[in-house]
Amino acid sequence: MARTPPHPDTFDLQQVLEALVDPVRRSIVTQLDASGQDIKCGAFDIPVSKSTATHHFNVLREAGLIRQHYVGTSRMNTLRRAELDDAFPGLIDALITRPAGR
Amino acid sequence: MARTPPHPDTFDLQQVLEALVDPVRRSIVTQLDASGQDIKCGAFDIPVSKSTATHHFNVLREAGLIRQHYVGTSRMNTLRRAELDDAFPGLIDALITRPAGR
């Protein structure tokens, strides 16, 4: 689909860490993992503007942490949990077992 | 001891991640863990100048990742592995199971 943004097929630890060092981005990952479902961009509880949120989603997608697809006009986000656990065993668990940003 | 620099008693995930997002600092942690021994500042295999290395050691110490003490004129570094594993289960393992920076 033309409207589906590109997603990397491989993961780079440096890029993944640079994505996860930001507390807002860790919060997005934590909320996705906790819900166990896809969440649309506008439905996250994050203290940033819409344009800043879009930047954070792009960084997460480009690092391989999330997949994005459209449902109607909503951009949905999916955590690539199984792939991440395979590439970096224990990393996501280590970062989401506590409230983001603490 | 007056020459022993200060070390934090508690860990902050944000500060720990900011320390570990740098590949040189991850390499220092990886080398300490692999050796299982204290290593003096001058003995690490890292591609930076002495003054830059000192900065990296300070960041690691201030985040609680390493302890430093003097033996004669050598500043020795100790990985705070057990404390880190207690504070952030799985995090160090997730970051040192592969070559630093990959």
Task: Describe the protein's architecture and organization.
The structure is a homodimer of 102-residue chains. The mean pLDDT of chain A is 91. The longest helix of chain A is centred in the middle third of the chain and has 14 residues, at 50-63. In chain A, helix 1 (13-20) packs antiparallel against helix 3. The N and C termini of chain A lie far apart (38 Å). Chain A is built from five helices and three strands, in the order H-H-E-H-E-E-H-H. In chain A, 29% of the residues are buried. In chain A, strand 2 and strand 3 form a beta hairpin. With 102 residues, chain A is of the alpha+beta class.
Record field, number of beta strands of chain A: 3
On the 0 to 100 scale, the average pLDDT of chain A is 91
Counting helices, strands and paired strands, the structural category of chain A is alpha+beta
Structural shape of chain A: globular
Write out the strand line-up for the largest beta sheet of chain A, numbering strands in chain order.
Answer: 1-3-2
Largest interface: A-B, 19 and 19 residues
What letter string, H or E per element, gives the SSE order of chain A? HHEHEEHH
Indicate the percent of residues in helices of chain A: 40-55%
Say what oligomer this is: homodimer
CA gyration radius of chain A, whole angstroms: 13 Å
Q: Kindly report how far apart the N and C termini of chain A lie.
A: 38 Å
Largest sheet of chain A: 3 strands, antiparallel
